[in-house]
Structure formats: structure tokens, C-alpha cells
């Protein structure tokens, strides 16, 4: 039964990471498209701003997913401790 729970936990983490990645790529690409339409005239620079936005979305999603899986890409970067508590951190503490 414990093995099934761990497998389900990994599936939940993957689902959350894929959802987060898809949303961040789409939203940041749309932000890049808007910025490209607002600031640039050339189609090449507009596409470049969309690609830059997509890259920002992928990078931020990768960072958050690596924290979820406890496999941080860099041990030198540590998330700062916040004095505010969010509902998700409170629920994680309650589960432990």
C-alpha cells in the first residue's frame, strides 16, 4: 500500500509540474507577443520577443518543478524564508 501511495505522489507532482509549465509558457509567450507588438516593428524582433517570453516561462517552471521534486539545480541558491505563510505551506505542514 505504501508503494502505491509513493507512486501516486510522484504522479501528482508530475501533473502539477506539467500544468505549471504549460501555463507559464503560454502566459509568458502572450506577454512577449504583447510586448513585441507594443515595442517592435519588425516581425523578426516580434518573434524573438515571443521566444524570449517562452524561455522565461520554461525557466521559471523548471526552477519551481525542481524545488517540488527536491532536486534543486543549484545548492547555492536557497529560497529566502518569508515571514508570511501561505495556505499551501500551512497545508503542507499540517500533512506532515
From TrEMBL:
Keyword Transmembrane annotated: yes
User: Where found in the cell?
Assistant: Mitochondrion inner membrane
User: Which key words are in the record?
Assistant: Membrane, Mitochondrion, Mitochondrion inner membrane, Transmembrane, Transmembrane helix
Q: What domain of life does the native source organism fall in?
A: Eukaryota
Query: What are the annotated GO cellular component locations?
Result: MICOS complex
Per the UniProt record, which residue ranges are transmembrane?
A: none
Pfam families on file: DUF543
Q: Which InterPro entries match?
A: Mic10
The yes or no answer to whether the keyword Membrane is present is yes
Q: Can you tell me which family this protein belongs to?
A: Belongs to the MICOS complex subunit Mic10 family.
Q: What does this protein do?
A: Component of the MICOS complex, a large protein complex of the mitochondrial inner membrane that plays crucial roles in the maintenance of crista junctions, inner membrane architecture, and formation of contact sites to the outer membrane.
Protein name, please? MICOS complex subunit MIC10
Amino acid at each position: 500500500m505504501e508503494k502505491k501511495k509513493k507512486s501516486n505522489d510522484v504522479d501528482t507532482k508530475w501533473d502539477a509540474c506539467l500544468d505549471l509549465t504549460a501555463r507559464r509558457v503560454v502566459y509568458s509567450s502572450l506577454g512577449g507577443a504583447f510586448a513585441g507588438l507594443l515595442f517592435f516593428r519588425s516581425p523578426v524582433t516580434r518573434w524573438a520577443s515571443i521566444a524570449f517570453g517562452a524561455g522565461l516561462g520554461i525557466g521559471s517552471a523548471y526552477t519551481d518543478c525542481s524545488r517540488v521534486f527536491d532536486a534543486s539545480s543549484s545548492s547555492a541558491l536557497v529560497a529566502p524564508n518569508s515571514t508570511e505563510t501561505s495556505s499551501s505551506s500551512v497545508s503542507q505542514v499540517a500533512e506532515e
